[in-house]
Amino acid sequence: MSESAPSPAADAAAAAADRGAVGRASIEPAPLMGAAGPRWAGGCLAPDDPPPVIHRNPGATSPILLTCDHAGHRVPRTLPLGVGEQDLCRHIGYDIGALAVAERLADLLGAELIAQRYSRLVIDCNRPPHAPDAMPPRVDGTDIPGNSAPTPADAAARVAEIFMPYHAAIAASLDARAARGEATIYVAVHSFTPHHGDYPAARPWPITFLFNREPALSHALAHLLQADGINAGLNVPYEVDDEGDYGIPVHAERRGLVSTLVEIRQDTIADQAGINAAAQRLADTLSQALASFPPSPPDPAS
Ligand SMILES: [Zn+2]
User: Fold this and answer.
1) What's this model's pTM, rounded to 2 decimal places?
2) Which residues surround ligand 1, an ion (CB under 5 A)?
3) Number of domains comprising the chain
């Protein structure tokens, strides 16, 4: 995603940092630190680290497939990322509240959810793995020492053991649906901060829908919510593109699926009541939109 709000040029760097973009050249080399012990010789994940994929309601019959790329803030036990728990629990570490909403939404819709439990600071699962901010050395003013100069082997292990299994799980689900002749509606769930950087005002949208080549579902959802008096946004505070995103371009657009990337403002889902309300509103709105929205047919080539 790329920042789309009409911010002054001077805010560009801060805006980029908000979504994890980085200035690698500005980072002084720093020693790796924060290791919990000797590195696991097998790669990124130790035998007692949990798998990256959280799979809820596999085999559910709803045409909607939910994903949550930034669901967790876990760090592999022996990875010397050098980031404290306080920073991992901020937006730089994961999408606060997104997994809770996605899980609730999956249960309300009877839909399958595939989510990823490791921090975006370990490997960002909504970036092409070669992107400069896939393993950011600095985010939103915070240095990530373990990302200042990862060895090729370290970087490859993060891709192979976290990024690839997550996206393979999504691809396998989509392949299976297509093989059964079922259409899929691809809905990626994310969250964004209510304030950012030097931006003078709070972001006014409680929920937004992002798209690139497939605008129809995003427009339908936003218009339904706007008709209910909710200030739903379109392609704010980010936009979807091929360089800054992975799930929508690769899984949804290449297969011609109806899709949207949902962004929910984090202060609206800061407690269980807010999570429940957001999930219920999204479930109702998705159901309403899809009732008059023919799902795209499965791509026989995929
Ligand atoms: Zn996100």
Assistant:
1) 0.86
2) 70, 95, 190
3) 1
